[in-house]
């Protein structure tokens, strides 16, 4: 079995729970409270995507092959461009969707976002394989979730237009395929210990994907 197939199998139960989560199902049918989507956009664009881009950069610096550095380097640019695009489009659509206006300053990271960002930071500093394992879940889940939103959204619902904008486009499939190919390559060439490390960091990253959806739904705050 290819390593990518093993990772998909490992992620499948969590992905099923994510797709059924009230945050994403509420976004599909328009029933999601506006404050939840606002929280998601603030935390995603203000904290999580920049942290992901920095983790890509650190992992790229640890790569031994130029092709791997190039793949991760392109993803840095793509991540930050996606961040800017989502911010801009949310600001344009917020009033029409009855949503809070975006903050003028980056928001403080919520407790769950802070843990997710710290995970990216620690994993990308640990080893190349650990960094790849930590980065892959966001690529994979974003692909699956955004496709599902587009396919199952309720036409004419409150967030139908936003869902179309949130989807990264057909070209994103090539990036996902490249990341899965990188995992397969490491599955064949990395030491058994590094292969296990990649899998374990992937497993933890998958859990963070569920936790971020849950946090966007509940909007937790620091106690002090």
From TrEMBL:
Origin: domain of life: Bacteria
Pathway: Cofactor biosynthesis; thiamine diphosphate biosynthesis
One Pfam family from the record: TENA_THI-4
Domain Thiaminase-2/PQQC, first and last residues per copy: 16-216
Gene3D superfamilies: Heme oxygenase-like
Name of the protein this chain belongs to: TenA family transcriptional regulator
Annotated source species: Streptomyces spirodelae
